[in-house]
Protein backbone atom coordinates (compact mmCIF):
# COMPACT_ATOMS: atom_id res chain seq x y z
CA UNK A 1 0.00 0.00 0.00
CA UNK A 2 1.35 3.43 -0.92
CA UNK A 3 1.78 5.93 1.94
CA UNK A 4 -0.54 8.92 1.69
CA UNK A 5 0.84 12.16 0.25
CA UNK A 6 0.42 13.80 3.67
CA UNK A 7 2.81 11.36 5.36
CA UNK A 8 6.29 12.75 5.02
CA UNK A 9 9.15 10.33 5.28
CA UNK A 10 11.66 11.46 7.87
CA UNK A 11 14.10 12.08 4.99
CA UNK A 12 11.89 15.02 3.99
CA UNK A 13 12.71 16.78 7.23
CA UNK A 14 16.45 17.13 6.50
CA UNK A 15 17.50 15.48 9.75
CA UNK A 16 20.36 13.57 8.11
CA UNK A 17 22.82 16.22 9.31
CA UNK A 18 22.31 15.12 12.95
CA UNK A 19 24.20 12.32 14.68
CA UNK A 20 22.38 8.97 14.78
CA UNK A 21 21.14 9.29 18.39
CA UNK A 22 19.62 12.70 17.65
CA UNK A 23 18.06 11.40 14.44
CA UNK A 24 16.43 8.59 16.47
CA UNK A 25 15.19 11.09 19.06
CA UNK A 26 13.64 13.30 16.36
CA UNK A 27 12.09 10.33 14.52
CA UNK A 28 10.51 9.18 17.79
CA UNK A 29 9.27 12.71 18.57
CA UNK A 30 7.53 12.83 15.17
CA UNK A 31 5.61 9.60 15.88
CA UNK A 32 5.40 9.19 19.66
CA UNK A 33 6.13 12.58 21.26
CA UNK A 34 5.07 11.69 24.81
CA UNK A 35 7.87 9.10 25.03
CA UNK A 36 10.70 11.64 24.67
CA UNK A 37 11.94 14.79 26.38
CA UNK A 38 10.20 17.46 24.28
CA UNK A 39 12.11 20.33 25.84
CA UNK A 40 15.32 18.71 24.63
CA UNK A 41 13.76 18.19 21.18
CA UNK A 42 12.75 21.87 20.88
CA UNK A 43 16.27 22.93 21.93
CA UNK A 44 17.87 20.64 19.32
CA UNK A 45 15.63 22.02 16.56
CA UNK A 46 16.22 25.62 17.63
CA UNK A 47 20.00 25.21 17.95
CA UNK A 48 20.30 23.53 14.55
CA UNK A 49 18.09 26.19 12.93
CA UNK A 50 20.44 28.93 14.14
CA UNK A 51 23.46 27.41 12.43
CA UNK A 52 22.00 25.71 9.36
CA UNK A 53 20.16 27.92 6.90
CA UNK A 54 18.74 25.02 4.87
CA UNK A 55 17.35 23.39 8.03
CA UNK A 56 15.90 26.70 9.31
CA UNK A 57 13.74 26.82 6.15
CA UNK A 58 12.44 23.28 6.74
CA UNK A 59 12.14 23.19 10.51
CA UNK A 60 8.58 24.55 10.59
CA UNK A 61 7.36 21.30 9.06
CA UNK A 62 9.02 19.18 11.73
CA UNK A 63 7.60 21.41 14.47
CA UNK A 64 4.13 21.29 12.91
CA UNK A 65 4.23 17.48 12.78
CA UNK A 66 5.36 17.16 16.41
CA UNK A 67 2.72 19.68 17.60
CA UNK A 68 -0.01 17.75 15.73
CA UNK A 69 1.22 14.37 17.02
CA UNK A 70 1.34 15.60 20.62
CA UNK A 71 -2.14 17.15 20.43
CA UNK A 72 -3.54 13.94 18.96
CA UNK A 73 -1.77 11.71 21.47
CA UNK A 74 -2.69 13.40 24.74
CA UNK A 75 -3.98 16.87 23.89
CA UNK A 76 -0.61 18.20 25.08
CA UNK A 77 1.27 21.35 24.13
CA UNK A 78 4.61 20.82 25.92
CA UNK A 79 6.59 21.00 22.70
CA UNK A 80 4.88 24.13 21.43
CA UNK A 81 5.27 25.89 24.80
CA UNK A 82 8.99 25.08 24.96
CA UNK A 83 9.51 26.11 21.36
CA UNK A 84 7.82 29.48 21.92
CA UNK A 85 9.90 30.03 25.07
CA UNK A 86 13.11 29.46 23.11
CA UNK A 87 11.94 31.72 20.28
CA UNK A 88 11.22 34.42 22.86
CA UNK A 89 14.64 34.05 24.51
CA UNK A 90 16.43 34.30 21.16
CA UNK A 91 14.21 37.23 20.18
CA UNK A 92 15.31 39.17 23.27
CA UNK A 93 18.96 38.60 22.27
CA UNK A 94 18.48 39.42 18.60
CA UNK A 95 20.72 42.52 18.46
CA UNK A 96 23.48 40.67 20.24
CA UNK A 97 23.06 37.74 17.81
CA UNK A 98 23.16 40.06 14.80
CA UNK A 99 26.31 41.74 16.11
CA UNK A 100 27.99 38.37 16.66
CA UNK A 101 26.92 36.51 13.51
CA UNK A 102 24.90 37.79 10.58
CA UNK A 103 24.32 34.22 9.44
CA UNK A 104 22.86 33.20 12.81
CA UNK A 105 20.59 36.27 12.79
CA UNK A 106 19.33 35.52 9.27
CA UNK A 107 18.74 31.89 10.31
CA UNK A 108 16.73 33.05 13.34
CA UNK A 109 14.51 35.29 11.20
CA UNK A 110 14.01 32.47 8.69
CA UNK A 111 13.08 30.07 11.50
CA UNK A 112 10.60 32.34 13.32
CA UNK A 113 8.90 33.16 10.00
CA UNK A 114 8.78 29.46 9.17
CA UNK A 115 7.13 28.72 12.52
CA UNK A 116 4.66 31.57 11.93
CA UNK A 117 3.82 30.01 8.57
CA UNK A 118 3.31 26.46 9.85
CA UNK A 119 1.96 26.67 13.39
CA UNK A 120 -1.64 27.82 13.45
CA UNK A 121 -4.33 27.96 16.11
CA UNK A 122 -7.79 27.28 14.64
CA UNK A 123 -6.27 27.95 11.19
CA UNK A 124 -5.16 31.42 12.26
CA UNK A 125 -1.55 32.60 12.76
CA UNK A 126 -0.38 32.53 16.37
CA UNK A 127 -0.99 35.98 17.87
CA UNK A 128 2.10 35.67 20.08
CA UNK A 129 4.32 35.59 16.98
CA UNK A 130 2.86 38.49 14.99
CA UNK A 131 4.74 41.37 16.65
CA UNK A 132 8.08 39.52 17.03
CA UNK A 133 7.98 38.58 13.33
CA UNK A 134 7.21 42.18 12.36
CA UNK A 135 9.97 43.45 14.67
CA UNK A 136 12.49 41.15 12.96
CA UNK A 137 11.40 42.19 9.45
CA UNK A 138 11.41 45.89 10.38
CA UNK A 139 14.94 45.42 11.74
CA UNK A 140 15.94 43.99 8.36
CA UNK A 141 14.55 47.13 6.70
CA UNK A 142 16.77 49.54 8.67
CA UNK A 143 19.46 51.41 6.69
CA UNK A 144 22.39 49.40 8.12
CA UNK A 145 20.70 46.08 7.26
CA UNK A 146 19.78 47.21 3.74
CA UNK A 147 23.53 47.54 3.11
CA UNK A 148 23.87 43.74 3.52
CA UNK A 149 22.59 41.69 0.61
CA UNK A 150 22.23 38.66 2.90
CA UNK A 151 19.73 40.56 5.07
CA UNK A 152 17.83 42.04 2.12
CA UNK A 153 17.60 38.60 0.54
CA UNK A 154 16.26 37.15 3.80
CA UNK A 155 13.69 39.94 4.15
CA UNK A 156 12.39 39.52 0.59
CA UNK A 157 12.18 35.72 0.92
CA UNK A 158 10.15 35.99 4.15
CA UNK A 159 7.78 38.55 2.63
CA UNK A 160 7.20 36.28 -0.35
CA UNK A 161 6.38 33.49 2.02
CA UNK A 162 4.28 35.14 4.75
CA UNK A 163 3.72 38.78 3.70
CA UNK A 164 0.11 38.30 2.74
CA UNK A 165 -0.73 36.40 5.95
CA UNK A 166 1.03 39.04 8.05
CA UNK A 167 -0.78 41.91 6.38
CA UNK A 168 -4.15 40.25 7.10
CA UNK A 169 -3.44 40.13 10.83
CA UNK A 170 -1.89 43.60 11.11
CA UNK A 171 -1.88 45.91 8.08
CA UNK A 172 -0.63 49.13 9.82
CA UNK A 173 2.68 47.42 10.65
CA UNK A 174 3.01 46.20 7.06
CA UNK A 175 2.53 49.81 5.93
CA UNK A 176 5.27 50.86 8.38
CA UNK A 177 7.60 48.19 6.98
CA UNK A 178 6.94 49.19 3.37
CA UNK A 179 7.49 52.91 4.11
CA UNK A 180 10.98 51.90 5.25
CA UNK A 181 11.55 49.75 2.16
CA UNK A 182 10.33 52.45 -0.20
CA UNK A 183 12.52 55.09 1.49
CA UNK A 184 15.47 52.71 1.42
CA UNK A 185 14.96 52.09 -2.27
CA UNK A 186 14.49 55.75 -3.19
CA UNK A 187 16.79 57.57 -0.80
CA UNK A 188 19.52 55.33 0.53
CA UNK A 189 22.93 55.65 -1.03
CA UNK A 190 25.39 52.80 -1.33
CA UNK A 191 22.93 49.95 -1.91
CA UNK A 192 24.21 47.21 -4.19
CA UNK A 193 22.43 46.82 -7.52
CA UNK A 194 21.15 43.40 -6.36
CA UNK A 195 19.71 44.88 -3.13
CA UNK A 196 18.02 47.61 -5.17
CA UNK A 197 16.57 45.04 -7.57
CA UNK A 198 15.26 42.89 -4.69
CA UNK A 199 13.65 45.93 -3.02
CA UNK A 200 11.98 47.04 -6.24
CA UNK A 201 10.68 43.52 -6.80
CA UNK A 202 9.12 43.28 -3.31
CA UNK A 203 7.58 46.77 -3.63
CA UNK A 204 5.93 45.67 -6.89
CA UNK A 205 4.98 42.30 -5.40
CA UNK A 206 2.93 43.88 -2.61
CA UNK A 207 1.51 46.59 -4.89
CA UNK A 208 0.22 43.78 -7.13
CA UNK A 209 -1.70 42.20 -4.24
CA UNK A 210 1.18 39.88 -3.28
CA UNK A 211 1.52 38.67 -6.86
CA UNK A 212 3.96 39.46 -9.66
CA UNK A 213 2.73 39.76 -13.22
CA UNK A 214 4.35 37.21 -15.54
CA UNK A 215 6.19 40.05 -17.31
CA UNK A 216 7.62 41.36 -14.02
CA UNK A 217 8.51 37.81 -12.97
CA UNK A 218 10.47 37.26 -16.19
CA UNK A 219 12.21 40.62 -15.79
CA UNK A 220 13.33 40.15 -12.19
CA UNK A 221 14.27 36.53 -12.41
CA UNK A 222 16.25 36.91 -15.61
CA UNK A 223 18.09 39.84 -13.96
CA UNK A 224 18.78 37.79 -10.83
CA UNK A 225 19.94 34.82 -12.88
CA UNK A 226 22.36 37.08 -14.78
UniProtKB/TrEMBL annotation:
The cross-references to SUPFAM superfamilies, in alphabetical order and at most eight, read: ARM repeat (SSF48371)
Q: Which domain of life is it from?
A: Eukaryota
Say which species the protein is native to.
Perca fluviatilis (European perch)
Pfam families named in the record: MIF4G
Q: Which family does it belong to?
A: Belongs to the MIF4GD family.
Q: Which UniProt keywords apply?
A: Cytoplasm, Nucleus, Translation regulation
The protein's matches in InterPro entries, at most eight in alphabetical order, are given as:
ARM-type_fold, MIF4G-like_typ-3, mRNA_TranslReg/HistoneTransl
According to its UniProt entry, one GO biological process term is: regulation of translational initiation
A single Gene Ontology CC annotation of this entry is: cytosol
- Which residues are the signal sequence here? none
Q: What is this protein called?
A: MIF4G domain-containing protein
User: Which compartment or compartments is the protein found in?
Assistant: Cytoplasm; Nucleus
Protein purpose: Functions in replication-dependent translation of histone mRNAs which differ from other eukaryotic mRNAs in that they do not end with a poly-A tail but a stem-loop. May participate in circularizing those mRNAs specifically enhancing their translation.
| Quaternary state and interactors | Interacts with EIF4G1, EIF4G2 and SLBP; probably tethered by SLBP to the 3'-end of mRNAs ending with the histone stem-loop, it also interacts with EIF4G1 which is bound to their 5'-end.
Record has Cytoplasm as a keyword: yes
